[in-house]
Amino acid sequence: MPETSNARPPIAIDGPAVSGKSSVGKAFASRIGYRFLDTGLMYRAATWNAVQNGVDVSDAQSVAAAAETMEFSVTDSESGDNLIVINGEDVTKHLHSIQVDDAVSSVAAVGRVREIMVAEQQRLAGEGEIVMVGRDIGTVVLPDAPLKIYLTATARTRAIRRHRDFIAEGTEVELEVILRSMEQRDLADSSRENSPLRPADDALVVDTDDLSFDEVVEKLIELVEEVL
Length: 228
Ligand code: DC
Prior knowledge:
This protein has a single domain (11-218), classed as 3-Layer(aba) Sandwich (Rossmann fold), CATH 3.40.50.300. 50% of the residues lie in helices and 15% in strands. It is built from nine helices and eight strands.
């Protein structure tokens, strides 16, 4: 991976769904003056593209072929959010649709899709100071990053957080339904053959069960001061 001279090293953050990686990672990156990259959006982009092209997402070969011909780029909005452009169109607003949620685990499990995304993530890391969040950043994408963080919380805590978000949006969903779906996603992410979710051997595990959003951000800043 090319190194940018004098640049501070990349920081890897991994963890399960709704562990706060994206929101905490973005606030943390902004506090330390780093770029932020949510790699989940890249797998979501490959999924959106496949679905739009009528690809059967259970057919790995077709999913891989669609990803190979997809022209995409990741840019940043003024507020530091990632924007994804596919074949010239900004598709960001579609990436958290139910259609994408339902299909993304199958697409992210395809080895060729992962190769394409990992290559682009490593290229972006080579451009310099970046906080990259995902499932395999410490284990596969940036195994040499000197600071690897694994954010976690119990499935119940994460389900309660997601439930609160739904209530705030005015959507009624039972907590137990969210909890079951969370447990299924955890199992799918951690038991897949390609790059399963797990902390890197040298990752620092931050358990966020009893921490507020601001406390997690402060904790990560302490780690930067200690490790980098
Ligand atoms: O973090 P998220 O929910 O936006 O991730 C979407 C999907 O992509 C989820 O199935 C996990 C997968 N993913 C992955 O396999 N590797 C990453 N580095 C990031 C996300």
